[in-house]
Design a protein that fits this description.
homodimer; Arc Repressor Mutant, subunit A; Rossmann fold; 9 helices
Chain lengths: ~290, ~290
């Protein structure tokens, strides 16, 4: 292998991993390297094989004049596991409980290294559903929604608590919060390109599911459909939520009478287990 | 070069680029690959050289028993340029102006591919300042703040518009908005670990600078220091803002009487120019 080839392999790998889920033009890449497309194809095959072996992700190449290459990252199960262990540990500290019985976690929700792996996890769960966008209600679910959207290659549709002057005209909905029984409201700017979109709703916390349900109702007014709901934490009680289908990374048993207060959900363990399958811990591993 | 070596190069490159600015243990990496540290060091030197040549970023290795390796990505000047061109074009469309004269841009602010490169840009500008965290006020500046924080390897300190039950006790500040002359308020939970922190304040929009100034004042109450301010767009008028030092990616000339309505700031062009220096467009380029 020549020096130039290994340099191209490093550059190609770096370029693909930092442009996940984007269609990269073969013509442009071969121009950048000053090599023929056939040479580039050989390089890409080597990168693809090595990425398969080491479970970094998959490389799909379409040949032809409009040919391109797309890198789809594999879920980093190790990062997800470490992150969830961190959350379980952090949230079990007594000073995380406010006198009113809430869990204080704003500092953690807004730390990219604590939230990005969980966005990858939610994205992995919804990847097959042809998602057009991620909806969330301000404010604390925003980082998780952004992390999920980034990994799915889509944008976030922000539902506001109040409509703002800078949003122009907006459609608003008042609803009864399922847990606190207070009247709350949310609104969506008419300028938001929601028509016909297939959306997943992402939030930090779910108790009765009233907010998720209201978001679903409001988005229906825009002819958008909520095809999935994902949250960081859901409470075990009430068992029957106001929405039917949702996934939570962690489950919180508020009463703490039986079992541990916080648990990782079964679907998470399954996705993490699958991401480890066949991964010998790198190409030289056994 | 053996098959195993090129597989390790691909895996190492992919692992480094997807764990930017993190200290990775040499011991753990050599265990993962099942190779001696000396072999791993040779691999890393090849990756480092190729990354230097192609300006993907820098690889720093510390040898010894506590030895580790850190990858610091280089600013992707091409992505920044393309993103800013997109913003200039999108914001000049007439239907972005609300009847009240605001720019509607919530949909763009919450699209990761439109905002992440600008977070990388702000991070590059503040990288040398030993930043402990990024502060922002809800809501529209959050994605840019998260993108900047991610690239700096720190968390975001969220200032709320109202204090919430789930935040526990909080310190609040009322202030006069510099542009609209309305009373506004912001608050920070006492649980937020701000004491002694060196922060940069990031927001989407700045007119008179009243919000940035109030954030600075509130954070001072926590013994935290705002050592820099970065926004996506600042207005040309008023020329004298309520804070002295700030950087804006784009400048908006609201009056539009002289010159173009939106312009890329000089410091941005300088950082982008530097990122292109010596980059022949890939290892095979001229």
């Amino acid at each position: 292998m020549t020096n130039q080839r290994y340099q191209r392999l490093v550059w190609l790998t770096g370029h693909l991993t930092t442009h996940p889920d984007q269609q990269l033009s073969l013509t442009e890449l071969s121009r950048k390297f000053g090599v023929a497309k056939s040479t580039l194809s050989d390089d890409l095959l080597m990168v693809k094989t090595a990425m398969d072996e080491t479970r970094l992700g998959t490389v799909d190449t379409q040949v032809g004049s409009q040919g391109g290459v797309v890198f789809s990252p594999q879920l980093d199960g190790e990062a997800v596991e470490k992150t969830l262990e961190f959350w379980l540990h952090a949230l079990s500290e007594p000073d995380r409980r406010t006198p009113e019985g809430f869990l204080y976690m704003t500092d953690l929700l807004f730390d990219p290294k604590r939230i990005d792996p969980l966005g990858q996890l939610l994205a992995e769960n919804f990847r097959h559903m042809a998602v057009d966008g991620v909806a969330t209600v301000e404010t604390k679910g925003i980082p998780l929604a952004m992390a999920t959207a980034e990994r799915l290659g889509v944008g976030v549709m922000l539902l506001r608590r109040d409509s703002r002057l800078s949003d122009g005209s907006a459609l608003s909905l008042n609803y009864l919060s399922g847990s606190s029984h207070r009247i709350q409201s949310m609104s969506l700017s008419r300028r938001m390109p929601a028509r016909g979109a297939r959306l997943i709703f992402v939030d930090d916390f779910m108790k009765a599911g009233g907010t998720a349900r209201a978001a679903q109702d409001l988005l229906t007014e825009f002819d958008a459909r909520v095809i999935g709901v994902g949250v960081l934490i859901s409470t075990r009680e009430p068992e029957h939520k106001l929405i039917e289908d949702y996934v939570a990374c962690l489950q919180w048993n508020e009463s703490e009478k039986s079992g541990p207060p916080l648990q990782v959900s079964g679907w998470v363990n399954e996705l993490v287990r699958r991401s480890h399958l066949g991964f010998g811990g790198g190409p030289g591993g056994t």
